[in-house]
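Worked example (supplementary).
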Amino acid sequence: MPPGFVDESALVLALQQRKEEVMATLYDRYAAAMYGVIKKVVTDEAIAEDLLQEAFVKVWKAGAQYDASKGRLFTWLINVARNTAIDYLRSKRHKESIQTDELDVYSPVTERVTTAVDHIGLKDVLATLKPEQQEVLDLLYFNGLTQEQAAEELGIPLGTVKTRARTAIQVLRKILIDKKP
Amino acid sequence: MTPEAYISSGILELYVMGSLESEEMAEVEAMAQRHPEVLAAINDIRDTLGEFGALHAQSPPPALRSKVLESIAAVAAEELPVVPMISKAEISVKYARVAIAASIALFLLSALTAVNFYLRWQEAATLANSLLAEKTQLAAERDVLQARASESSELLALIAQPDFRLVNLKGTEKHPEASALVAWNPGSAEVYLWVNDLPQPAADEQYQLWAIVDGQPQDAGVFDLGQGSLKMKDFGKAQAFAITLERKGGSPTPNLEQLHVIGTL
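After joint prediction of all chains, the assembly is encoded as:
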């Protein structure tokens, strides 16, 4: 990493000033996290690669508008990656729904919620979540369902989707944010 | 709904994950604008989910790096003709502003300088005028002093000659203030007169000097006042000198009623 790009604010400044070389630094730092999220959403490797590329182009294009007051750069990058993947997933579903004219365009929950627990940190984290919390999180965060779709999919009321999502994220917050040095 | 109840409802989590309909999203955004604690909670959820997402990190294939960077370079290259144009326009606007500001500043500066110079010039002109007047006055005074000095030196020169005799003409009873001085050289017969103080005569009158030779007054010449030393008629012989006021041009015999000064040898 170039010595100038030590912290996020330096990266943000370089991004806002349209310094192209910052993109290599961003890639080296965050590509794995972004790729991991995308891969988790779309599962297909080739598509995930294309989407990562798309996500980075979006980062470059929107970089001048990135506002540090709206959250951390890291969070924003993960969001861009996730949203790129979710958008892809949604448009694919949309096309499929037109083609097949089927109401249930989602693959069965059991198939979809297959979290690759090969990461020790991730395994520990997921172990602290109740299965129903994991389920809601997967549907909303990685599959990009709306709350109605999730409620329908799980056969639970809308309010329950909300509370489960909230408690799941509160558990994550405790582990991931509060216990951070 | 209070911000606290709103935060704990779980709607913010769904908002961050993009699981809300657009109507509800707008509602959340309005709440976040009104209540800083709602905005803080949203950012908190974003960070948590970001960290959670990052837990799934997987290294992309190494070849992807150059592919991604190349596509960014391509996009950046497309931007190039636009970006500099915008920045050039911004720069030119900026420079135009700077130039306008600079010219205004320059104008104000030159106006101030002009006013300053004008005031100084006026000051200098006034000073020059007063100096000129002073100089003229001084020159006049100098001329007077020079004239007096030359008179004095002439007088001194005459007095210094051993052959000259000085006759002090004193005021009569009628004219006690009047006085004059005659320097007479009996050898060369030269007679000089200095008036110290005589009343100003009327326009048709003139003073006349008389030499008293053997008891008889003889005309020694008429004169006007303010002339310094006056060369009068020559006399080889005299016992006294006197001045009377006569009609203009002088008289053959003195009017003794108008005798002003007299001095005997």
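Two points are worth noting when inspecting this output. The interface with chain A takes residues 8-14, 17-21, 43-61, 64-65, 67-69, 71-73, 75-76, 79, 83 of chain B (CB under 8 Å). The longest strand of chain B covers residues 205-213.
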